[in-house]
Amino acid sequence: MSDKADKDSEPTGTGGPQRTPAEKQALGKAAFPAIPNDQKDISEQKEPWWVSRAEAISKWATTVAIVGTGVWAVFHFYIAREGQTAVTIDIVSSSIPYNNNGTYLVTFDVTLANNGHVAIRANREIRPAYTDKDEVVLYGGDLLVRRISDQLKSGDMVAWFVDDHEKSPKRADLESDLLRIFRADDGTTDFWIEPGEAYHLTSSFVLEAGTYLAIVTFVSDRSSEDLWRRVAVVSVPVQATSNVSQSTVDTMHP
Fold first, then answer.
1. How many C-beta atoms surround the C-beta of residue 141 within 10 A?
2. How many whole angstroms separate alpha carbon 59 and alpha carbon 63?
3. pTM for the full model?
4. Is the pLDDT of residue 206 over 80?
5. CA angle, 109 as apex, 104 and 110 as ends, to 5°?
6. What would the pLDDT profile of 119-129 be if each residue is shown by its tens digit?
7. From CA 140, how far away is CA 156, in angstroms rounded?
8. DSSP state of 86
9. 201 contacts 195 by C-beta, under 8 angstroms
């Protein structure tokens, strides 16, 4: 019997000692212990409450910033028109006898003031600085002087452009470059006005006694239609300092 008992206790087959299901489960737990909750994959953990709140606040702040920027742009560039240029032209004339033949040295003192919020530069090109089918303006800061006929009748209109498509300048008109001292080495005009600045520019002609029209044109480099002008009536000899009231004309013709 002892031999039979020994045979029964020996392992059978090649798979090692046979184990019950309970023993196998116990051995599995020992070999692969459970992972503590604090060591599980972070992706399985629930995000803190403040993360979702921070994301919502960030999206709200971005939206407010975009809307605020749009409102700011509309106010400054469309309502307040801060991007628009504004030039004021003022003309003061004076005269002194030139010789004994009845001629006078007439000086035109022109003030250009920048009343806008951006710098403005004169057109660099000269001869011409501006042209269209009716007129040619030679300089970015241009002065034209024309004698008014003494043959006019009562009620006749006096203006630089009387008829539609009237040509300018006329053959007898006198023209001067008010910005002639602001020339670059290449011969072009190099002149600009910062916001709030004003420049005094002068030009003089020897004129006979009579009544004249003077027109000052400032041509900007921003576009071919961005120009300002002022027309004044000048009597020679000038009895007293003639101060032409300030005016801004943002059109092609006065």
1. 26
2. 6
3. 0.66
4. yes
5. 140
6. 999 999 999 99
7. 31
8. -
9. no
